[in-house]
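Q: I'm writing up a methods section and want to include an example of the input and output format. Could you take the sequence below and give the corresponding predicted structure tokens, formatted cleanly so I can copy it straight into the document?
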Amino acid sequence: MSYAFKCVYFLLIIEIYSHTAYGALAPVPGNVDMLIAGTSCVDYSNLNTQKQDIDANGESGRTFRGMMSWVKQHRPPIVILENVCSAPWDRVKEYFEKNGYSAEWSRVDTKAYYIPHTRTRVYLIAINKQGSSIPKKWKEWIVSKLKRPASSTLDAFLLPSDDPRIYQARQKLVQESYGALDRKTGRTDWGRCESRHQRARLEEALGAKRPLTSWDEGNFSVIMHYFAVSILMDS
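A: Here is the clean output for your methods example:
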């Protein structure tokens, strides 16, 4: 049996029951084969202008310590963590090693692992055994043997830009951000998201999305000269 709990912080303050990701109150298991967790990234994110360390009393530090408290108490054989690249991964590894685990972490990009999307994240694996060779072998597999570029483009999975569901989803995000108690910005800054997207495309040398026509969301296009000449010659 497996459980997906909503927040690992509550594992620190509630020992018997906690809410799952679906809202149900369930007993917190102790005898498990594997723990997969993603602690809060808000204090490590590059979008945060007031970053806090893992030992601070921020959300990231609290959720991490909540997870580690459960790990120290129940000693799961395998722990897998996921978080942003700017998280203090050497410190995280050190936490596990001080508690008798062997650990390694690796930075990966989803587009190198079947998925047509550029998203860099770090994963860490910890084994409840000092001096275990498994974490290093896992890292070797991740960075070499398991890599395979995506065979389908991202556009094949996306809704058309004028699909009403996209507008509804964005409006919902804005409304939720206005009502969120833990949000200081008040709303989603789509301009900032777009600039990060463009920077990532530039850094990854992905090029323009529509290089032949330069078509944009306003239905404006500029056909390249040599392409227009080719069309005239063919006709």
